[in-house]
Amino acid sequence: MKKFNVVIASASEKTRSNIKQLLEFHFHFDFETVALITNECDVLSACTSGTVDVLFIDSNLLSDFDQNQIIEKLSSEIRIVYLSKDSIQAADAFDLGVIDYLIYPFGIERFHKCIKKLLKELNSIVDFPMQYMQKMLRQFQVPIEKKDPIIVKGTGNIRIIDTDDILWVASAGNYVELHLSDEQRPILHRETLTSMLNKLTSHGFIQVHRSALVKKRSISELKPTDNGDYLITLKNGALLNLSRRYKQSMAGILN
Predict the structure, then answer these.
(1) Which of 58, 121, 160, 208 has the fewest beta carbons closer than 10 A?
(2) Which of helix, strand or coil describes residue 47?
(3) Do 32 and 129 belong together in one domain?
């Protein structure tokens, strides 16, 4: 768990000690006091080292002009909690960009509320790089393609055919024959070839003939014929014709 580095700047030794002790007693797992500042000259040098996360700064340390300059300069880099006896002065500092303010004398409950607000802000900054990386990873992830099965209604039964099991599809009027990788005989299914092509294109099927679809991954060989067509050999040994009309479906292989 990350500990956040704290600088406490006040002309009052009592204030510096009080804030430091409250942090150590109630939030020692979250914060570590790395500097106690007693004059305005050291505030900027202590807080611009790149290792400071939080600045508690007391209004008694600075003139109004220096206060405005320091808060405006530092508020974009670190989280500032403003300490004051004057609520109007504290409200002015809040408008300059401090994350919260504490008005003397403040109680434990008010201090806890301030620190919880501070931690919420600091932890969101720490978590941001991880959230950004997760978002980028999600963008580069390949979406899992939804593979809807083919539902075949037979006489007295309903078969659920995984598209991965289909090697090729042949037209048979208002039906199609589904040729599967693990079955010798095709499955007759009441659907047109055009409808099947619409369903199976996203799964790697192409039309190779006016009466046939084939899964591209199941092709093992293409051999030209004398009439300009091609003879397709599938991995299971089946032979199909690739008509010249559908030659474009094999773009990247034949061209």
Answers:
(1) 160
(2) helix
(3) yes
Count of C-beta atoms within a 10 Å radius of residue 64: 11
Q: Given this model, what pLDDT does residue 126 score?
A: 47
**Contacting residues for 28 by C-beta, under 8 A, at least 6 apart:** none
**For residue range 40-84, what is the model confidence (pLDDT) as tens digits?**
888 888 887 768 999 999 988 877 667 777 887 887 778 999 999
212: phi then psi, degrees, rounded to nearest 5: -150, 140
* pTM across the whole model: 0.48
Q: Which helix (H) or strand (E) holds 72?
A: helix 64-74
Tokens found for residue 1: 């768990």
Q: What's the pLDDT at 253?
A: 61
Contact indicator for 85, 103 with CB cutoff of 8 Å: yes
Residue 82, classed as helix, strand or coil, is: strand
Identity of the residue numbered 241: N
Query: Could you tell me the strand order of the sheet in which 239-242 lies?
Result: 219-224, 230-234, 239-242
Residue 210 pLDDT greater than 70, yes or no: yes
Dist. CA 111–CA 26, nearest whole Å: 10
Same domain, 74 and 95: yes
Which residue do the tokens 């042949």 mark? Answer: 170
| Domain enclosing residue 236, as ranges | 150-250
Domain count, the chain: 2
Q: Per the domain annotation, does 170 fall within a domain?
A: yes
pLDDT for 149 equals 87
Per-residue pLDDT averaged across 233-239, rounded?
Answer: 91
